[in-house]
Amino acid sequence: MVDAFGPVQTYPDHGAAVSGAARGRPERGAEPMQVVAVRLTAEEVAALDEVAARGLAEREGWDAVTTRRLSSEIEYSQPVIYQHFASMEDLVEAIALEGFGELADALGKARGRAAPEEVVGAVARAYCTYAGENPALYDAMFVRATRLRFGAEGTPTALSSAYAELRAAAATIAGGRDVDTLTHVLWAALHGLTTLSRNDRLRPDHASDRLDLLVAQFSTAGSASPSAQP
Fold it and tell me: What's 63's DSSP letter?
């Protein structure tokens, strides 16, 4: 619903007598159900768009996320959506940024809880868990074409933070190896495991074994590095 002052969301006033109406007819002697209008800010409407689009993508895939479907989901007109996102690409990028922030938080918590010798394994598992639990969001972050770039001038903080957590973990096993190169290879390996594990392309009951082997290979190579020797 939209009035002259902007979008309005309506909710039933639960103080009114509505038990009969809930059964499909008004209760005898009951007052009509009142409707309370709650005006949403521009930020709240944008957030509502993002939540609806993210949920729709996870349920039905990104092809299902259209302005028409979102308009139906959030009960606002398509022009209201376009007031906040000029295109679907802008909306997907906003959702991806939210995902990078969540990923950075998940990796940071895993790294903070782990013992020094277990940091890489803990972060690797947190990465794969997050990707597995949010497949459509992960696609928006790493698979779909976007204008978001790592290591570029103006890279958003959420991207830099997520990369920094992965780099901090890789640094614990780097030895004499270049930390950024090691981070890139570790990241690529985790991304490969994540995407290939979908739809049972890899044996689902061996996911933990694959991750253990990957971490062991990275850690063993680091301890064998000449500069890592005492």
Answer: G
Report which of 102, 103, 71, 101 is spatially closest to residue 84, judged by C-alpha positions: 71
Element at 120 (helix H, strand E): helix 119-133
Residue 50 is predicted with a pLDDT of 80
Token pair recorded at residue 118: 């277990």
| Bridge pairing between strands 2-3 and 6-12 | antiparallel
CB 19 within 8 A of CB 27: yes
Mean per-residue pLDDT for 84-99? 84
Whether the pLDDT of residue 183 is over 90: the answer is: yes
Contact 161, 141 (CB under 8 A): no
In sequence order, what are the residues at sequence separation of 6 or more whose Cβ sits closer than 8 angstroms to the Cβ of residue 198? 135
Which among 158, 168, 144 is positioned nearest to 61, based on CA atoms? 144
Which of 73, 70, 124 lies closest to 94, judged by CA? Answer: 70
- pLDDT tens per residue, range 15-35: 444 344 444 444 455 454 443
- Average per-residue pLDDT for the chain: 79
Q: Tokens for 47?
A: 């957030």
Given a contact cutoff of 8 angstroms between Cβ atoms, the answer to whether 58 and 136 are in contact is: yes
| Sheet-wide strand order for 6-12 | 2-3, 6-12, 35-39
The string of DSSP letters for 177-205 reads: S-HHHHHHHHHHHHHHHHHHTGGGSS-GG
